[in-house]
Amino acid sequence: MENFSLILAIVVVTALAFDFTNGFHDTANAMATTISTGALKPKIAVAMSAALNLVGAFLSVEVANTISKGLVDESGIRPEVIFAALVGAILWNLATWLVGLPSSSSHALMGGLIGATVASAGTGAVHGDVLVTKVLLPAVAAPIVAGLAAMVATRFSYAIGKNADGEATRKGYRAGQIASAGLVSLAHGTNDAQKTMGIITLALIAGGSIAPGSNPPTWVILSAGLAIALGTYIGGWRIIRTMGKGLTDLQPQQGFAAQTSAATAILTSSHLGFSLSTTHVVSGSVMGAGLGRKGGVVRWSTATRMFVAWGLTLPAAALVGALAESVTDLGDWGTAVVAVFLVAASAAIWKVSRREVVDHTNVNDTDEPAGVVTTAIAAVTPPPAGTVADGLTATIPAQATAPATDAAVPPTAAV
Prior knowledge:
- The protein is an all-alpha fold.
- The protein has one domain (2-380).
- It has helices at 2-36, 42-56, 62-71, 79-98, 105-121, 128-160, 166-206, 218-234, 237-246, 252-272, 278-292, 300-328, 332-353, 371-380, and strands at 395-396, 413-414.
- The chain has a two-stranded antiparallel sheet.
- The radius of gyration is 25 Å and the shape is globular.
- Mean pLDDT is 77; it is low at 368-398 and 400-415.
């Protein structure tokens, strides 16, 4: 019993460590557009997001119950299995953060849990209907719905404000952005913070500390909320850069439309108990907002890398979780080996990240190439009257003149 209590403590600490990585990995979801458009200064933005994440953690337990009661068979789960699942999720979060890709922390956690459960108890211990209806289908539908909503909202915003004073309009939308960013942060707390609550509750059930079917205890809700809030305040600046500047260049109208659409989708999903990827939703809404502005473009080179990461998240985390479970199944020494590997791998990733530091001072600097599609669209989009688009030149041929034997043909004028 004493040994088991140690294992359970390790699981809880590891779950909170995952929650911390979830916080800084997903800060971009709420604040990337607000920071990129200048509506809020970076440090103020992440502080606000952290506080609202903590508040959101107390608003609902529906998503937590989906994980602790619905996704896998509680009777076939040991604390070591959950520990292995968390190892897969944490390493995937850190790897994608290193390269600045906004992948899904939620799917990393789901993948790690599924892989570890299958390795421990077989495929029958995973509830396939819950996986499809509350994880996979929302993963596909939510970013599409949010993207379309953001595109329509962006076009509507520009349509109703086309005759308004430009500076007053920008100020108004910046204020709207701050409010909508707060709503996204609140929604993030109601969805992502609960995933860690669910995983800790599942560990407590597996360890016999609480009865099967129980809701998360108050201390679990508080600790999970604090962990994700602290991670959010640290700021995942690499991913904020990608979301705010790497996908598209946003104006305040677009930022407001993107955040409002994302918050609506996330809050609705949380109410229904869908374990939604807030990263997918916000990324979809940002791309939709980028396409909603006339002449706006999306950097599809960045988007393609994101799509690949999304597709790999579940299987990659599942594979790591399954391998970790195979080692922990060897006994206490196996669990110790996995724990040492997790710490060493995390430290190595952090050390590599120090070679090129991204923080609040340079988060809006990006050298992301436009890509072939974006360049082609920019080439055929007429510039505003009286200006010449960057990188383009117009050549005006000289007027025809009567032939003359002693006069030179006027040179071509370049504008």
